[in-house]
Each structure stands twice: as C-alpha cells, then as structure tokens.
Amino acid sequence: MPARRPISETIQYQVRQRANLLCEYCHASEQWQYVTFTIEHIIPLAKNGADTLDNLALACFHCNRKKSDRMTAIDPQSDAEVPLFNPRQDNWSNHFIWSADGLFIIGLTPVGRTTVTVLALNRERVINIRAADKAVGRHPPPGDPIQLEN
Ligand SMILES: [Zn+2]
Predict the structure, then answer these.
(1) Could you tell me the distance, in angstroms and rounded to a whole number, from the CA of residue 120 to the centre of ligand 1?
(2) How far is the centre of ligand 1, averaged over its atoms, from the C-alpha of 29 (Å)?
(3) For labelling alongside 118, which of 26, 52, 65, 86 has CA 20 to 30 A away?
(4) Could you tell me the distance, in angstroms and rounded to a whole number, from the CA of residue 28 to the centre of ligand 1?
C-alpha cells in the first residue's frame, strides 16, 4: 500500500470543534479523557473514503475499532442489514436516547439499535466511566435527550 499523507492539523481541529469534543457515536467527551480521540473515516479508506470533513468523524478509540471498516450491520431485532449511524447524515438525537439514569444509550431506530449493538456503546467499562462522570456533573452531555423517569 502506498504511504498515506496524515490528515492535516487544520482538518483534525475542525473535526474536533464540529463534534464539540464528543465521540460522535458514544458521546464520551474527549475533554475528560487522558487519551486523544481518533479521526474516523465514515466511508473507510479501504473503500476509497476521502480525508475530507464530510467523511470524517471524531470517535473514541473503542468506537473506531468496533466500527472498523463497516458501514452496515445486521439489526439484532429484524435480522435485516441496516446502515450504521452516520454522524454526517444522521442526527444523534433521532436515533439514540439516554436511559433515565444517564448510563445506557438506547437505540430508537433500526440504525440506532444496530449501532448500539455493533459498537458496544453500553460496554461495562464505559458505563463505569459514565457513572463517575455523572457523579461530578459532567454526564450526560448538555442537550442530549434523556428518557423520562417512570
Ligand atoms: Zn465512542
């Protein structure tokens, strides 16, 4: 494979600002992490995805690794192949909502629930981090939808 030019500092900065420093999948904030998040290619490089803003998203290491070079996956409920959440085309709040306690991401649509499953958005370690962040008032991110208490 030919050597690739790294994504420019300017584009990386623009991706981070646009995402408000949130992983565009699990909504973890880079602000509270001690590792920087990755710049993810929505259409993967392996499928000739571009290094342009409309194909890039801020993603934490885990979401990026879980998504890998996939763009679709099998909906666990219907067994149909559906697109994964696309941060450049889809609105997070249309596909996901926080559980009332703020610890779990619930998929509202086939795209949402498939993405929750495939990217393991409710893995145990991240739930522990959400609980700790919630205890100090920095989770869920401002403006995110949250289910009402019963
Ligand atoms: Zn993430």
Answers:
(1) 9
(2) 9
(3) 52
(4) 6
- State the distance from the centre of ligand 1 to the C-alpha of 51, rounded, in angstroms: 20
Ligand 1 geometric centre to CA of 36 (Å): 12
Q: Which two tokens stand for residue 59?
A: 């993603």
Domain-located, residue 57 = yes
- Cβ(93)–Cβ(141) below 8 Å: no
Domain range for residue 81?
9-135
Give the Cβ contact number of residue 125 at 10 Å.
9
Please, are residues 127 and 18 in contact by the beta-carbon 8 Å criterion?
A: no
| The predicted structure's pLDDT at residue 2 | 54
Weakly modelled stretches of the chain, pLDDT under 70: 1-4, 150
What's residue 24's pLDDT? Answer: 98
CA of 150 to the centre of ligand 1 (A): 28
Which residues are bridge partners to 73 per DSSP?
82
